[in-house]
Amino acid sequence: MTPRNPILRGFNPDPSIVRVDADYYVATSTFEWYPGVLIHHSRDLTNWQLIGRPLIRASQLDMRGNPDSCGVWAPDLSYADDRFHLIYTDVKRYGQTTVDGASGASLRDFHNYWVSCDRIDGDWSDPVHLNSSGFDPALFHDDDGRSWLLNMLWDHRPGRGRFAGIVAQEMDLRSGALLGDRRLIFEGTALGFTEGPHLYKRDGWYHLIVAEGGTERNHAVVMARSRSLFGPYEAHPDGPVLTAMGKPDAALQRTGHGDLVETPQGETWMVYLCGRPLPSSDRCVLGRETAIQPMCWGDDGWLRTVDGSANPDSGGGRETPVDERHDFDRVDLPAAFQWLRTPYPDQLFSLTERPGHLRLYGRETIGSHFTQALVARRQQAFRYSAETKVDFDPRHFQQAAGLVCYYNSTKFHYLHITADDDGQRQIQVLSAIPSGQGSTLLSAPVRIGAGAVVLRVQVDHEALRFDYRLAESADWCWLPETFDASILSDEATVPGLPNFTGAFVGMACQDLSGAGHPADFAYFQYREHDRDIGNAQTRGDT
C-alpha cells in the first residue's frame, strides 16, 4: 500500500485510526464546529470517504458559549466487544489568570465523554461522562479483556507544570464506569507538553505514544515502552520518532499527535497532525491537517520511520483540485458544510422553507459564541475561489448577509449586503484583524440595486479579493481592496487565545434587531486552482 500523497485531504487534525477487518477508519477533531467529530473510511489508506459525524444531538454535544478553538478536541476511536467506541473532550474554558504580571493559576475546563455504536455510520449512544482531569482521552483494550482510559493530566496550580503527565484508570466497557484510582504512568520527556496518549501492546511490551513539544514548530511524536502498563516507561533511545522540529525547510511542519494502525499484511502506518506553511511565511492557512506515512519496527523492538530519520514524509504526489457546486436542492445540508456550536440547526437554517435554497435566519453577530447563522466548508488549497448567489433585502443597517472567509470570531473577512440609513442596499467588507488586542475594520460601502446578487472571493496564497455582480448582469465588479488571507491561520493571533481550527469559507446572515430576517442562498461553489488566480482576475475568468 502506497498513498499517493501523505496529506489526507479534507481531514481535520488530531487523528485516531482503527482497522476492523479490511476497513480503516479515522476520527478527527472538529473544535467548535458542529456536528462533532469527522469519521472517514478507506480500504487502501489512499482513497477516503467521509462516512460519519457521530455527535449530532444536544444530549451528545452542546457547545454554545464555548470559546474559539475549544469544543471537541482529539477524539479517540477504537473497536472492542463488537462495538465502536469513541472518546472525546468538550473544552468549555481556555483561560489563564495573571497576578501582578506573574503567571497565575491556569484554569480550564475539560470534560471527557464516551459514546459507542455497533455500526460506524449508525446512531451513536448518549454520552457517559468519564472525567474532567485533563484532555486527549483514549481507550486501550488489553489482551486480558480489560479496558483502560488514558488522558493527560492538567495541573492548574501556579509554578507547576501544567502538562503533568499521562494517567490511566480502568473502565468498565459496558457502563463506562471508572474502576479503582487513576495512576500516573508517564511524566513525559524533557520536551514537555506531554499529551495525546495512545497505548499498544506488542511482543510483551506496552508501547506508549504521546505528543510533546507543543503543537507549534517543536511538535513531536514521542514513544516509550514498559513491560507493565503502569510503568516505569523507558523513552525511545533515538528521541522523537517523528518530528519537523529544527527542520525549517520541511514541507510538513508541526508534526505530532500520532496514532498507529497495522495492515493485514503486518505493515505499520502512522497518522499524525501536521501543517503546511505558506511559501513566503510561517502561516498555515490550511490549518492543522492529517498526514499518513509508513513506519517500521527495528530488531531492537523500537518503532522508526522507514529511513530512520524521524522526518515527516512530504510525498510529492499531486493533489486533484476540488471543484464542487451545491445547489441546495435536497433536504439535507451537503456533507462538506458545518455550522458553529449549536445542536439546534433549525434555528439557523432551512433547506425546505424555500425549495432549492439554503435559507439562513438572521441571528447574532458574526463573532458570536452562541447562536450565529454561519454555514461553511473548510479551505483545502492555497489557491481557490468560492461563489454564491444570495437573495436578501435588508431593511436597515442591523441586517446583513453574504460570503465570509472565516477562521474564528477574531479573524475573518466578510463580504456582505446590508442597508444604509435610508434603506438603500449596499455592499461592503467587515474584517476582524488579530493585531495587538484585535481590531474590526469596515470598508467603504458600495451602493447596489435590487435583486439577487452573486458574491465571489478569490484567494491566492496571502492575497484575497472580493467581487460581485447583480444576478441579471454578466459584469463583475471588483472591490478595490486586496485583503490579507494569511490572518486566517493559527499563527496570526490575539495573544493568549487558542488557534487550532483552520480557515473556512461559507455563507452567513445576521439580524441584530432580533427579528430573524432571512437570506436565501441559491448555490455555493468551491473551486481550487492550479494556476495564478491573479491572471484570471484580470480576465474576469475563474
Report what the structure shows.
This protein is mostly beta strands. The protein has two domains: 290 residues, Glycosyl hydrolase domain, family 43 (Tachylectin-2, Chain A), CATH 2.115.10.20; 217 residues, Jelly Rolls (Sandwich), CATH 2.60.120. The protein is 1% helix and 46% strand. It has one helix and 41 strands. Strands 3, 26, 29, 31, 32, 33, 34, 35 and 40 form a nine-stranded antiparallel sheet that branches. β21 and β22 form a beta hairpin. The chain is globular and about 75 Å long. The C terminus is likely disordered.
Question: How are the secondary structure elements laid out?
Answer:
Layout: E1 16-20, E2 23-28, E3 33-34, E4 38-42, E5 49-52, E6 71-80, E7 83-94, E8 98-99, E9 102-103, E10 108-117, E11 128-131, E12 138-141, E13 147-154, E14 163-171, E15 178-186, E16 195-202, E17 205-212, E18 220-226, E19 234-235, E20 242-243, E21 253-262, E22 268-275, E23 288-297, E24 303-305, E25 323-326, E26 338-340, E27 349-350, E28 358-361, E29 373-378, E30 383-391, E31 399-408, E32 411-419, E33 425-433, E34 439-442, E35 446-447, E36 453-460, E37 463-470, E38 477-478, E39 483-484, E40 504-511, E41 518-528, H1 533-539
Antiparallel strand pairs: 1-2, 2-4, 3-26, 4-5, 6-7, 7-10, 8-9, 10-11, 12-13, 13-14, 14-15, 16-17, 17-18, 18-19, 18-20, 21-22, 22-23, 23-24, 25-41, 26-29, 27-28, 28-41, 29-40, 30-36, 30-41, 31-32, 31-40, 32-33, 33-34, 33-35, 36-37, 37-38, 37-39
